[in-house]
Every structure is written in structure tokens, then in C-alpha cells.
Amino acid sequence: MKPTSLLLALASLSAIIAQEVVTVDQGEQIQFDAEHNATSLIGTWSSGSQSVQTGPGFANPRNRSFTYPRNTGVSYSFTDDGWYEISRYRLQANGQDPTCITGLIFWVHGKYQMLSNGSLYMIPNGDGFQQIQNRCSANSNQILDYNETELYNSWRIYQDATNGFRLQMQQFDNQSLAPQYQVSTTPNMLPKAQLTQTQTQVLNRRGLNGAANAATLLKRWWSGTD
């Protein structure tokens, strides 16, 4: 998919979703105890080969640049005072021209809420950004803002016999994110503050995959493994 098509879909998503979608205290209330989670959410988590990790080695918001990891993947970090950070790196193949691969790399941070119904709600700080690259496109390198709320219907932490603690998150439509494994019990994150001079508008949407026609598009970028 061309970057211009991706941008149009993202713009459509922002236009479609103009209402708050998180409802607190509905449904069965969840106890965040040892049965629900084998360990604390606090720390840094990463998928697959763990090449993608949050922190200063991935993104520099001040000059809106990235250090590209060896492999694709996703990483989440959480603090005990309600901050989160997400790093993602994905590649999208082109069925008509295998040499025209589109790459998208992304960083955002903000505050999260553990809702009593077991959902996890993330509110960005207003300084997130992403880079879209495709050498076959007329506009082959674009830097764009990214500041959208994300809602996860549920999350749990399991004990994996091979890889240790595993974080499994379900999106608003119950599609599973790639499993992430604990990298560190100490969050590896950039400073918990506004890191750019200008703060962009935060957009509300149902969850990581958005809604309507944009759901399939964003799922191709962010759902999946290394």
C-alpha cells in the first residue's frame, strides 16, 4: 500500500471517530491479582526477537528521528505512576512489486488507565510521531504526527516455560497483539514530559485498529509478529 493511501485512510479514521469510546465500570469487574497476572505490568516488554524496544535507543522526539532496529516488532513500557511508551516498526509488502516495500516506524507515550472491567486505556501526551518510507512513492519519506488514544479490551500476563513472563493484549475488537516478553522490570523510557515544542491534537478512537474501513488497514501495520 502506498503511503498516500495510508494517509488517506488515517485521515478517514480521524473523521469517522469523533466521540469518546471508553466506558468505565461496565460489565464484570476484574481483580488484578496473581491469578490474573503472573507478575506486574510495570517494566519493558517486547515482541519476537526483541529488536524493537522503547527508550532513547529507538526514537528522538526533539528532532523527530528514529534509530532503525535490526528487525520489526513492537515494545511497550509501563511505569508505576501511570505512564506508558510504545515503539513499533513494521514492513508492508507490495504484491504487485516486491521491491516496493513500505516501512512504518512509530513512537508515542502518555498516561494509561487500568479500568475496572479489565480494559487498558492509553491517552497520548501529544508529541508522538511516525515515519513512512517507500522508495517507489513520489513522496518517499514522510514524518507525521501520531497522537490517538488506544483501547485494549483485556490484558493478562502469563508465565511462559521457555521465554519467561508473557504479556498478551487484546484490542477493542478482541484481536490479539503479538505476544510480548518481559525485557526488564525497570521501564526503559524517554522522559515523562512534553518532549517537543508544539503539542498536537489527541484523537479519540475505539482502539488500536480504529473503526470501519480503517480497521483492516491498521491491523496490517500493527497486529502480527516479527
UniProtKB/TrEMBL annotation:
<keyword id="KW-0256">Endoplasmic reticulum</keyword>
<keyword id="KW-1133">Transmembrane helix</keyword>
<comment type="similarity">
    <text>Belongs to the ROT1 family.</text>
</comment>
<dbReference type="GO" id="GO:0006458">
    <property type="term" value="P:'de novo' protein folding"/>
</dbReference>
<keyword id="KW-0472">Membrane</keyword>
<dbReference type="Pfam" id="PF10681">
    <property type="entry name" value="Rot1"/>
</dbReference>
<feature type="signal peptide">
    <location>
        <begin position="1"/>
        <end position="18"/>
    </location>
</feature>
<keyword id="KW-0812">Transmembrane</keyword>
<dbReference type="GO" id="GO:0051082">
    <property type="term" value="F:unfolded protein binding"/>
</dbReference>
<keyword id="KW-0732">Signal</keyword>
<protein>
    <recommendedName>
        <fullName>Protein ROT1</fullName>
    </recommendedName>
</protein>
<dbReference type="InterPro" id="IPR019623">
    <property type="entry name" value="Rot1"/>
</dbReference>
<dbReference type="GO" id="GO:0005789">
    <property type="term" value="C:endoplasmic reticulum membrane"/>
</dbReference>
